[in-house]
Specification:
Distance between the termini: 33 Å
Helix content: 40-55%
Number of helices: 15
Shape: globular
Strand content: 5-15%
CATH topology of the largest domain: TIM Barrel
CATH architecture of the largest domain: Alpha-Beta Barrel
CATH class of the largest domain: Alpha Beta
Number of strands: 8
CATH superfamily of the largest domain: Aldolase class I
Structural class: alpha/beta
Radius of gyration: 20 Å
Number of domains: 2
Length: about 300
């Protein structure tokens, strides 16, 4: 979810679900230790519970970043062992770490000793020619022995040779049954399933077997699906916000962010899918795409986009 789940998108998500755990886009240790730390780590208090997803493989650097994450107020730090991008491979982290479970375990052990917040692992079921059951079991066993209790498993292999990062989200077949088998083999661990999940009904079916569900692309392209989460998955009978309620609240947030120098198109891109499936929603999307990037554009673009949609 690089370039997707930034702090603005997470604020939008929280307007629709009070309970879902929100994850940052993957942030590398180098960005935190040597870059603009506030840019990568700042978040609104409304986002809790929120987890920082880290990309790296050096235990000392990862531990230092975990300590910073705890100081910054994050509720969890997550080690990314699933991203298949070329940049990640060249840095020896992300999905290529499936080949070195001992390295991941060393990170878990050292990080867990340094912080009080949970250290979790997000992974694939294997990479390239690995046998998924062997690769996944090896990683989970090693990391569980090191103290990890929560694993978020994208139920696809990652093919680092021959497929692009985009293709790796769709082309390798899903193997939910393998993740179910993982839960059966490690009942004491929290297993969260990820990959290709596009409905609340699918979430409910998975939750009959595993402990949690992670939804990524669908929640970004069709964000209003999150408005169903609290009632359907957390037994919260609070009134579900309407799309228009969400838009009004996000517009207020956008106005404040604009005053702090954030550009409108960095805010508006997250609500392009808010009216997904609604009549004339293409007019909403078109107005935003044609106007949000213009110099001097402000939150009134969202109002005018809404008017363009409802008036047809």
């Amino acid at each position: 979810m690089l370039d997707c789940t930034d702090r603005h998108e997470r604020y939008l998500a929280r307007l629709m679900s009070k309970h879902a755990v929100l994850y940052t886009e993957m942030v590398t240790t180098g960005a935190i230790l040597f870059g603009d730390r506030a840019r990568f780590l700042d978040f609104d208090a409304a986002e809790h519970p929120v987890a920082l997803q880290l990309g790296g493989s050096d235990p000392d650097a990862m531990t230092q970043c975990a300590e910073i994450a705890q100081q910054w107020g994050y509720d969890e730090v997550n080690i990314n062992v699933g991203c298949p991008s070329d940049r990640v491979q060249s840095g020896s982290f992300g999905a290529c770490l499936m080949q070195t479970p001992d390295v991941v375990a060393d990170n878990v052990r050292q990080m867990s000793a340094a912080v009080d917040i949970p250290v979790t692992v997000k992974c694939r079921i294997g990479i390239d020619d690995q046998e998924p059951r062997d690769a996944l079991w090896s990683l989970v066993e090693s990391c569980a022995d090191a103290g990890c209790e929560v694993f978020l498993v994208h139920a696809r292999k990652a093919w680092l040779k021959g497929l692009s990062p985009k293709q790796n989200r769709d082309v390798p077949p899903l193997d939910y049954e393998l993740v179910y088998a993982l839960k059966a083999a490690f009942p004491e661990l929290d297993i969260v399933i990820n990959g290709g999940i596009t409905s609340i009904e699918a979430c409910q079916q998975h939750l009959e077997i595993v402990d949690g569900v992670m939804m990524g692309r669908e929640a970004y392209s069709n964000p209003y699906i999150l408005a169903q989460v609290d009632q359907a998955l957390y037994n919260d009978d609070s009134a579900r916000p309407s799309r228009d309620d969400v838009l009004r609240q996000y517009q207020e947030y956008a106005e404040k962010q604009l005053q702090q120098g954030v550009r409108l198109n960095h805010l508006s891109r997250h609500v392009v899918g808010l009216y997904h499936g609604e009549p004339r929603s293409r007019l909403w999307r078109r107005y935003i795409s044609e106007h949000a990037h213009l110099p001097g554009s402000d939150a009134s673009v969202l109002v005018l986009a809404y008017q363009a949609m409802v008036q047809g």
